Amino acid sequence: MAKGRTRRSRNLTPFGASASPANDREESAVDWQVVKGDWLSASAEFPREAVDFLYADPPFNTGKTRSSPARAAARGRESDAAYPDRWQTMGEYIAWLHERLVATLPAMKRTGVLALHCDYRACHHIRLLLDKLLGEANFVNHLIWSYGLGGSSPRRFARKHDDILVYAIDADRYFFEPPMVPATSQRLRGKLKKATDVLDIPSLNNMAAERTGYPTQKPLELLTVLVGAFSPPGGTVLDPCCGSGTTIEAAARLGRNAIGIDLNARAVEIVTRRLMTRGFCGPTVGTGRGPNPSARPA
Ligand SMILES: C[S@@+](CC[C@H](N)C(=O)[O-])C[C@H]1O[C@@H](n2cnc3c(N)ncnc32)[C@H](O)[C@@H]1O
């Protein structure tokens, strides 16, 4: 496990493990940690009702191995990162997700929000799963991430969006701070308006400075919108399939505490380097057994 802390916001260590000795903690610090492990086994370590916002961007069951983009090495980025994204059947994939969500729900605060990132392959299955687990009444949004880049097809409309399904633990009490975007209408020109459920944010192009080389990395802007909307300042964000750590960086920048988990050792290395090169200090390498080991900072 790697852990670190910044000085951007209120201090809170969600899993009871401090990145610094208690007596030198500051009121303004943010804790972040990244754990190498399976979302399922890591969730056994979660304390109850500690997480404000869970964002999960799991493999999409594309049937492929997802690898670093071609020519990443030539651009000085990670070029050997990869993760498998294949289940025998959709039923097995949904069962895999079901087991992990059930194990994680006790960690959510009563005011918490869960966002599941998926695409056309499994979105309809996952919507039914979340209805069952959280209740239809707690459905909040079906966000469309409209990303623009990519090819087209002569056989259908080009597929240019992902789906982000958002549910509250309790629809009467969840946290929401509406993101504001520039208004486009003539009447409101130059003003801000509340964002709609279509998030028009370009995917990362090959030259983007934030690109790490990790496959399927999401843009920081997308996670900044989601983390800002669904978690309070000083709150705790959990990403159990954190990949390159986009959620962790967005949370740290916004003054939220963050926990990332990933099965892939390369992901954990990349997140750690990413946070450190952005000035978020750390890390401490722990046992990797879970998010609450006894490892102390060096
Ligand atoms: C779609 S990628 C996440 C990308 C990430 N949102 C980003 O911006 O870089 C999915 C990640 O889930 C991880 N993963 C797959 N199975 C996992 C499991 N059982 N537990 C934890 N992580 C897992 C993969 O290693 C991969 O990094």
Sequence-ordered SSE layout with sheet pairings:
Blueprint: E1 2-6, E2 30-36, H1 39-43, E3 51-56, E4 64-67, E5 82-85, H2 90-104, E6 108-118, H3 123-134, E7 139-146, E8 161-168, E9 180-182, E10 192-194, E11 198-200, H4 220-230, E12 236-239, H5 246-253, E13 257-262, H6 265-277
This protein binds S-adenosylmethionine.
Residues 38-39, 57-59, 83, 214, 216-218, 240-241, 243-244, 246, 261-264, 267 line the site of S-adenosylmethionine.
Key terms for this structure?
298 residues, alpha/beta, globular, binds S-adenosylmethionine
- Run of helices and strands: EEHEEEHEHEEEEEHEHEH
Bin the helical content.
10-25%
Our count of domains comes out at 1
Ligands in the structure? S-adenosylmethionine
Top CATH class: Alpha Beta
Oligomer: single chain
Amount of beta strand: 15-25%
> What's the CATH topology label?
Rossmann fold
Short précis:
The protein has 298 residues and is an alpha/beta fold. It has six helices and 13 strands.
What can you tell me about this protein's structure?
There is one protein chain. The chain has 298 residues and is α/β, with parallel strands linked by helices. Helix content is 21%, strand content 24%. The chain is built from six helices and 13 strands. The strands form three sheets. A nine-stranded mixed beta sheet has the order 1-2-13-12-3-6-8-7-11, sandwiched between helices. Strands 4-5 form a two-stranded antiparallel ribbon. A two-stranded antiparallel ribbon has the order 9-10. The longest helix has 15 residues, at 90-104. The chain is globular. Bound molecules: S-adenosylmethionine.
